[in-house]
Specification:
With about 170 residues, the chain is mainly alpha-helical. The protein is built from seven helices and two strands. It has a two-stranded antiparallel ribbon. Helix 2 (about 35-45) packs antiparallel against helix 4.
Amino acid sequence: MVDAKEEFSLVPGGPLYQVLPRTGLIRPPFGNVGWRIGVLTGLAWLPLLPLAILGRRFAGGVQVPFLYDFEVHARLLFALPLMILAELVVYIRMRTIRARFLERQIITESSRPAFDAVVASAMRLRNSVSIETAFLLILLLAGRFIWRQALALHSESWYATLTSSGPSETLAGY
């Protein structure tokens, strides 16, 4: 049996990860990856489809309709599944890295306490409720501003109508 210290990974931990097994989206450590990709991708992309249709912005009516916004489709249907899959790859690669460092004597006996302290610190940060809460607050408070300034199109699209006071989001853009 492998010592818990030998099982070093930055992925499975933290409050959000602890919720995922309870929802059935994940079987520890990373089972149901295909199911999770499908569910999370569907939750991100599928609601936009009827909202764009209801707003009459699915295939026309604006400069960039939903059907032709390839950037959104690439992010939600390609990049998001790849990021979820990357968690599995990182988990597999990182599990043995600590043991390999020690095995290959990259970490010497004299530097091992400092190395163990760094690993313990990383694990504490990974499992920190306050860090995850801070990230969530940053996302909620600054995410919309950053998206509007750096990522949003500054033209009529399926998610926003241009007005004299700036872009006004449609139901799909909210």
